[in-house]
Amino acid sequence: MNTVEILTVPVALTIAGSDSGGGAGIQTDLRTFAFHCVHGTSAITCITAQNTVGVKRVDAIASEAVVAQIQAVVEDIGVQAAKTGMLLNQEIISAVAQQITAYKIDNLVVDPVMVSRTGVQLIDDDAVQTLRNTLIPQAAIITPNRYEAQILSGLEIASLEDMQAAAEIMHRELGVKAVLVKGGGMSGNLRGVDVWFDGERWETLTTKQVETKNTHGTGCTLSAAIAANLALGKDLWTAVQQAKDYVTTALTYSLNIGKGQGPVGHFFPLLQIHGI
């Protein structure tokens, strides 16, 4: 008889939308968790019909169903960290914030999905305010892109100094432990440069610039990788550094699939093994 090895691994929860094209959302988050040897669980907030070219349709999940998913996971399995992505509307945001409070989920990464990297607002102003007032203050870290940082800070961002000023304002006014302003939407030498601030420490994260059009899901991947590292027991700054390195390598192995913008290569070690 073969001996069965019983494994115990950390658990992370993603609360986000489903991407039918597999390039972002919960599909990306779960692959990122798996890469880090963290068991991934999910609460789906909306279902999108999308591919590498664009989004065809978005359908919200009832807030009661989102709550039920969170409760089912936390009450039985438990979670060591969680991340939020697309929450879509005010009702879902409020419900998720209530569950985070009720279950005292401390290692919370909030990717404040409200504006695309191209500057298109994805949720309405009431939802933005609810996100700002109820969920973000509970986060260990928020990871806004350039345009989201502009909304949350009230500043126009065009330089490294602007990114730093916005991070300081968000840290002070939103009550979050740490802020990571992402530079994926910046231009020139600032593209891909991120700014970290935790109230005491400033850091600028720079890596090599990867020339690829296949960058779909980088924001989801980064926040999921931070959550995975937190679930593994790493401190917040280390979690951010290692997540940034992971995203950069995954970009290097981005997938040229579909007719538009493909996703990053979350499983790049397997690509290397198989010589792809």
Q: What would you note in describing this structure?
A:
This is Bifunctional hydroxymethylpyrimidine kinase/phosphomethylpyrimidine kinase. Its EC number is 2.7.1.49, 2.7.4.7. By secondary structure, the chain is of the alpha/beta class. Helix content is 39%, strand content 17%. It contains nine helices and nine strands. It has helices at residues 25-35, 63-76, 90-102, 125-135, 146-153, 160-174, 218-231, 236-252, 268-273, and strands spanning 11-19, 39-50, 55-60, 81-84, 108-110, 141-142, 178-181, 194-197, 202-205. Strands 3-2-1-4-5-6-7-8-9 form a nine-stranded mixed beta sheet, with helices on both faces. It is globular and about 65 Å long. The N and C termini lie far apart (37 Å). The relative contact order is 0.15.
